[in-house]
Write a structure and sequence with these properties.
The chain has 568 residues and is an alpha+beta fold. Helices cover 22% and strands 32% of the residues. It folds into 2 domains: 203 residues, Rossmann fold, CATH 3.40.50.10140; 342 residues, YVTN repeat-like/Quinoprotein amine dehydrogenase (Methylamine Dehydrogenase, Chain H). The chain has a 5-stranded parallel beta sheet, with helices on both faces.
């Protein structure tokens, strides 16, 4: 084993992380820390992942900075999936949230909220030493762990059978010196931090403000857990209580891995695949057509963007056309017969988030404008023939309407996922709405069911609707009764539920900063997360084709993942 401890930290806390590293290594506890241990020319994500896999222990420098860091969250997920012991060293009085809360809620903490005392230093050195000894099968020896290669011949002690090995004077001296070095370094760091507190706060604020905020993230960030409006309140509340009281289980039975990726010029939000091509709804860059013949080296061969302001967030492929839902430019019909030169054949100006094509009709989840049906018989002249305004049958709060995020069609029914819409700090409906679309000119809402929080996407398979809930992961509904659908199962996991795709006995989900998850849905009442794969960006859309998952990974473009699942 090349090192004993992986140190995870926010770059803003680098001084503390370096001090911790120095203190450990002064007593010959070997550390891996970035960027020091990343070789020239080595790819950062691969180096981090490999180092975590080879580490028995991760020391996580926990602060408000690491609490908000996507990279630290990903490192924590990798460590947990690899079975690494995580020891949080808390240097700031702050409650963990998101992924941190999920994994660290029942973990023992070591606090160093002020310049650490000798006892605090002793605690962390002793804890790490014991964990390393345990990993080596020597937990009965009360000594700081040393690599055999680091112990000189004259330092080795002869062991008497049946008697515990005593620390030599030189070893005890090393511990004492190391402890005082550790205390001195950390104390100095905290003094510097205290002196520059105002500057640090300014830098942190600037760092947070500089992060890219997408249209969908802004909507998601407004989500609050208040009473939903549509039917099925009791089932949604039951799911909340169940999640809060039961242990969240990830079996990690399946190993998934990224086999190829490609940055796109915009922010990838949705994806679909046909043959050797992937089609990306790429935010303000419009449509990207990507050749995926070589999955390890995908390449962009064509692009098409609506004129003026645009934000492509939903996509559907049917025949020689790609249909996009654009938050500003509306509904777009793009001719892709010539993959290198796609062009817009027709469009309808409107707000749009999700799109589904069935026959000569396009069904649109129209953000806060509701649900729309568009006649696309003439691709050059599409037109709206029917709409449904959510305010018709749903109680509003101060005039606020729900925002339609996604839509799935099956038979004569449209299944629409709805998330919150803010007006005057009030939140309206969220969950699943079911509409009868037999009469295309007059769709009628016939049923609905709350989700615990905002419903970001919906996928219908058989008599079940699978919802991506922004806070509670996968929510499974029995839709046998269209008038009274109800929640029968749930599987929560780290991150924010963004999109869902169902194939066979598995639901594949994206979860924002955490990436990609596979959920076994054989038992609909007790779905189980059996595998995951962290993506480098912010995972939104997902499409499954064969053994591969194609992920729209926002600022990191397209990720191609071997799911590890082999289905006929």
């Amino acid at each position: 084993m090349a090192h004993d401890v992986f140190i995870s930290y926010s770059s803003i806390d680098k001084k503390v992380a370096d001090a911790v590293c120095s203190a450990f290594e002064s007593v010959k506890i070997r550390c891996w820390i970035a960027p020091r241990d990343i070789l020239v020319g080595e790819k950062w994500p691969e180096a981090i992942s490999d180092a975590i896999d080879k580490s028995p222990i991760m020391v996580l420098i926990f602060s408000s900075n690491s609490n908000n860091s996507k990279d630290v969250s990903k490192e924590l997920v990798l460590a947990m999936n690899a079975g690494v012991n995580v020891v949080p060293l808390r240097i700031e009085e702050v409650a963990p949230k998101g992924v941190m809360k999920y994994y660290l809620s029942d973990t023992h903490w070591i606090d160093a909220l002020n310049p650490p005392t000798k006892k605090q230093i002793d605690d962390i050195v002793e804890t790490i030493s014991l964990l390393i000894n345990k990993a080596k099968g020597t937990e009965g020896e009360q000594k700081v762990y040393k690599k055999e290669d680091d112990i000189l011949p004259h330092e080795r002690e002869k062991e008497i059978p049946g008697k515990k090995t005593e620390l030599s004077k030189s070893n005890r001296l090393a511990i004492i010196i190391g402890t005082f070095i550790f205390a001195a370094i950390i104390a100095a760091v905290f003094i510097v931090i205290g002196i520059n507190r105002k500057t640090d706060k300014t830098n942190i604020a600037a760092s947070v403000e500089s992060e890219e905020k997408t249209v969908k993230e802004e909507i998601a960030g407004q989500a609050q857990k208040t009473e939903p409006i549509v039917t099925g309140e009791s089932t949604a509340e039951t799911v909340k209580e169940s999640i809060n009281s039961e242990e969240k289980i990830i079996k990690n039975e399946v190993i998934s891995s990224i086999v190829g990726n490609l940055d796109t010029p915009g922010g990838a939000y949705d994806v679909c695949v046909g043959g050797n091509y992937a089609y990306i709804a790429d935010g303000n860059a419009g449509l990207q057509i990507i050749d995926i013949t070589d999955k390890k080296n995908p390449s962009i061969i064509g692009t098409c963007k609506a004129p003026g302001r645009s934000f492509a967030s939903g996509i559907y492929l049917e025949g020689n056309y790609v249909y996009t839902a654009d938050g500003y430019a509306g509904f777009q019909i793009i001719d892709i017969k010539d993959k290198k030169n796609p062009y817009i054949a027709g469009s309808v100006t409107m707000g749009a988030s999700g799109v589904y094509i069935e026959g000569n009709y396009a069904y649109i989840a129209g953000n806060n404008t509701g649900f729309h049906i568009i006649d696309i018989t003439d691709k050059k002249n599409p037109f709206i023939i029917g709409s449904y305004d959510f305010s018709k049958n749903i109680i509003e709060k101060d005039g606020a309407k729900g925002s339609a995020s996604d839509v799935h069609i099956k038979g004569n029914y449209a299944y629409v996922s709805v998330n919150s819409s803010i007006k005057g700090s009030q939140i309206s409906e969220r969950g699943l709405l079911i509409l009868d679309i037999t009469n295309k000119e007059n769709p009628i809402m016939i049923g609905g069911c709350n989700t615990p929080n905002d419903a970001m996407a919906v996928y219908v398979d058989g008599e079940y609707a699978y919802m991506a809930d922004i806070s509670f992961g996968l929510v499974i509904m029995d839709i046998t009764s269209k008038e009274n659908p109800n929640i029968i199962g749930n599987c929560d996991f780290p991150g924010s539920g963004r999109d869902v795709y169902v194939k066979g006995n598995y639901a594949y989900m994206t979860s924002g900063e955490v990436g990609f998850s596979i959920i076994d849905i054989t038992n609909k009442e007790k779905p189980v997360n059996i595998g995951s794969c962290v993506t480098p960006g912010d995972a939104w859309g997902i499409y499954i084709d064969g053994d591969y998952a194609y992920i729209a990974d926002n600022e990191k473009g397209l990720q191609i993942i071997d799911t590890g699942i082999r289905q006929d």
